[in-house]
Amino acid sequence: MKRKRTQEAEAETTTDSRDWTSLPPELLAKIGEKLPIPHRACFRATCKDWCSASLPVVIPSPWLLFVIKNGDTCAILSLPTRRSFTYSLLPDLRGVQYVGSQAGWLAVYNKNMDASLINPLTAARICLPSFLTLPKFDLVDGSCVLPHLGRFSYYFVTKVIFSANPTTHNYIAVTLYGIPRGEIAYAKAGGDKWNLLQTTSTQNRSYEDIMYHDGKFYCMTVDAEVFAFDLSGVSPTVTLVAESMPLGLTHFDYHIPCSRLRHIHSKYLACSSTGELFLVLRHVILSYESLGWKAIMVWRYNPRRQPRWEAVKTLGNRSLLLGINNAISIPTENFPGALRDCVYFTAAPVRTTVNGSTEIIHSIVVSDVEQGRWARANSQLQPHLLPPVWFTPSML
Hints:
- The protein is mainly β.
- Among the domains are: 23-58; 90-244, Lipocalin, CATH 2.40.128.
- The chain is built from 5 helices and 31 strands.
- The strands form 8 sheets. Strands 23, 26, 27, 28, 29 and 30 form a 6-stranded mixed β-sheet that branches. A 4-stranded antiparallel β-sheet has the order 3-2-1-31, with no helix packed on it.
- A hairpin with a 5-residue loop joins strand 2 (73-78) and strand 3 (84-88).
- The longest helix is centred in the first third of the chain and has 15 residues, at 2-16.
- Residues 1-21 are annotated as: Disordered.
- Residues 20-53 form the F-box domain.
- Residues 78-347 form the KIB1-4 beta-propeller domain.
- It comes from Musa troglodytarum (fe'i banana).
């Protein structure tokens, strides 16, 4: 009996100390072929030997994730190639609300208001402070409530963006929350709560979109005023990037007064790889009667002009991907599956007629900037699974 136990112990020791990198390349290739595509990416990232032995994962990003609510899987579509596949969700990504996506990470929170950043390929997880610590926010009988409103819905957090390559010990996150007044708050690694993001010059603003670029957090108000916050120091510092337009904006021959700018148009911030800042306006609810420049319009920020937002009729060989993600700008000359000079919106409300009655449906919408027209995306892009999220995979 003693000898048998000794043999078992030796076998366990041999198994534990086995050098898995020494597996024959032919065997590694066979294993890699059997893995689903996202798992194959993780397999190749394990070490140099495994990477060279297995087939490359040629699925250009960005991807579009369609998540089944309270389900165990998601569908992933590569926009450049239109290839799609399914992927088993991590337990931490099941039954949660998705509120952000950036550089391979997803921002989510659950029904208990616990917030996290999760990399769905590496399973890395960073716990953010609970949304119960958001400023100007209380719970009444377990429901989300702001002081000036009654009971609040589960969707009161609009968006979360964060610094590049976040880690548990080094991250900065900013969230946009509150309806109808948009507040912004930030949290840093090591902190246990969200802090209201404001300075003396930015008090009493109502915000509509947020974006991260080149180490700064850009926040846009409902009046198209843009501030850049630097949160790398002990206290936030702020720079006014674009002033609000007291008389509204003019898009070529079409003028948008301030009242329409504030209440009728949804606003998005985007930035190109070269640092150009874009402002995109979209009717809050689209209808097929509202074709042309009035439905979706694009401005480029030009600090040398007055007014500094100038209307543009083309994005060139680029397209913008907008939604709960940090806005993505992609070159389209090498992406045959992506339309050039377009703006993609996820879950845009569209007024349509179904069986003779008017309904509002949430659809993926593509706007051709040069032609000044928009349309619902083809059936392959339709969000039959919710919510759709733009995602750029990363193994970091």
